[in-house]
Amino acid sequence: MNERVTLLSVATAVPEAIITQSEAAATSARLFAHRFKDFRHLAGVFENAGINKRHAARPLSWFEDNHGWPDRMAAYAEVAGQLFAEAAAKALAGAGLKAGDIDCVVTVSSTGIVTPSLDARLARQLGFRADIERVPVFGLGCAAGVSGLGIAARLAAVRPGKTVLFVAIELCTLAFRLDELTRPNIIATALFADGAAACVLQNGERGIAEVESSGEHLFSDTLDIMGWKIDDTGFGIILAQSLPPFAERELGPAINGILDRNGLARADIGRFICHPGGTKVLGAMETTLGLEQGSLDHERAVLSEYGNMSSPTVLFVLDRAIATGLPERAAMIAMGPGFSASCVTLRRIG
């Protein structure tokens, strides 16, 4: 069995609506300041988030009204379907393939629910074969861009020639809540955005890079750091203030362990490609990984232009890293609910 899995292409897509950070700050102040006494202490997060603009599933005015599950999931089904189709089509074109060449599609998303799943809804439009394997994954959050890529690579390794489409799509803005007068909700309003990314992987020889290894680390007793609480209105963000110091303290040893299990060390990595969860988290990641402050430049550029889109964001960073030239070996890293860390190493081809 040929277990060499290569990355053939990466593509991204974002919705049309754009929200500048100044617009988000002004609107949030108008909606929350008179109802939430701690808002003025949190208002600085909009300026310090390192974000210039974001893309959203709906125009800014939509978020000024109350919305329940039906509105939110209708918007998710519509826009997530559009972004899935766009990102997948771009990735297939970049790989020089058609949808009918895909043997398996892995879809990760934690910001909406549709059944039948997005891959089934779009199968006829995109041209998937009737015997395609579908693997929709929910609940991995921000880590899913890396852990989902690892899942897709392991599925591609099953047999020679097997080709897998991996799609990460999140509409984080649909979880913005007018009724949640909490610190995490205000921070989410300042950070999160919408977008999608797709990759094509193949069990073969050609491609941009070999998916060399993958691994995860689940931290014990950390369920309260990040996640959703779900009620009649929709998703509500769980986000602990302790995340940046936790990452600075715990992420480095966890990544060392993942690399070690795959016969690698941190010194073998020419470039870390990280999920930009926020400026404080990026600073913590640079510290724990022994990097110079400011060295995660692609991450900061993506954060500035697109915000934190959850799982697809690290693939936006990967796209930029490929465009500027991958080193011999790179390591993709993301953290997410669990609390967990995921790592995938890529070895450049050619």
| DSSP E strands, number | 13
Strand content: 15-25%
Enumerate how many helices there are, as a single number: 12
- The whole-number mean of residue pLDDT values reads 92
Shape: globular
The chain-level structural class is alpha+beta
Residue share in helix: 25-40%
Biggest sheet: strand arrangement: 5-4-6-7-1-8-13-12-11
Largest sheet: 9 strands, mixed
Termini separation comes to: 23 Å
Which regions have little confidence, pLDDT < 50, spanning 5+ residues?
none
The succession of helices and strands, N to C, reads: EEHHHEHEHHEHEHEEEEHEHHHEE
Rg from alpha-carbon coordinates: 19 Å
Offer a concise description of the structure.
The protein is an alpha+beta fold. The chain has helices at residues 21-32, 39-42, 44-48, 69-95, 118-121, 123-126, 144-156, 183-191, 243-261, 279-288, 297-306, 313-324; strands at residues 5-13, 17-20, 53-56, 104-108, 133-137, 163-171, 194-203, 209-218, 226-230, 235-239, 271-274, 329-336, 340-348.
